[in-house]
Amino acid sequence: MTASKEIETGTRFTPRFDEHGLVTCVVTDSRDGTVLMVAHMNAEAINRTIESGEAWFWSRSRKALWRKGETSGNTLRVEELLVDCDQDALLLKVSVGGSGVACHTGRRSCFYRSHPLGRRDAELVFLGKH
To answer: Cβ distance 36 to 28 under 8 Å?
Structure first.
């Protein structure tokens, strides 16, 4: 089997990290599928997540490993870890602890604004409560 065939159809977990040693990770609520956040993981964050069942990430701005909810109490308990077809993106299905918010702004999801289509100069529109 070729290397790409093994990555795409095999059972071996071999994340394809970018040039910075990171892989993109999408986080959704395991109950209703809401996209809560997008973050990045390095090998250590992935290993800690798998071992602990809690979501760990790599902060590109702080250049440090962090466990979601470390200071806020809004932890992410991983229910399922999914890998995309070419293993360059991960999806965590989680239950949110604490007050139930995933975004550092105090919102449930980091995706709380939309951009209207058809106009590049349009302002962002807030969704739901803000």
So the answer is: yes
Q: Integer distance in angstroms from the first to the last C-alpha of the chain? A: 51
What digits encode the pLDDT tens for the residues 13-56? 999 999 999 999 999 999 999 999 999 999 999 999 999 999 99
Given CATH 3.40.50.300, say whether it is the number of domain 3-126.
Answer: no
DSSP state of 45: H
- 3-state SS of the chain: helix, strand, coil percent to 5? 15, 35, 55
Q: What are the boundaries of each domain within the chain?
A: 3-126
Percent of the chain at pLDDT > 90 equals 89
Q: What is the pLDDT of residue 125?
A: 95
CA dihedral of 28, 33, 34, 37, whole degrees rounded to 10: 10
Residue 91 has which token pair?
A: 């999806």
Q: Which residues pair with 113 in a beta bridge?
A: 126
For the chain, the maximum distance between any two Cα atoms, rounded to a whole number of angstroms, is: 51
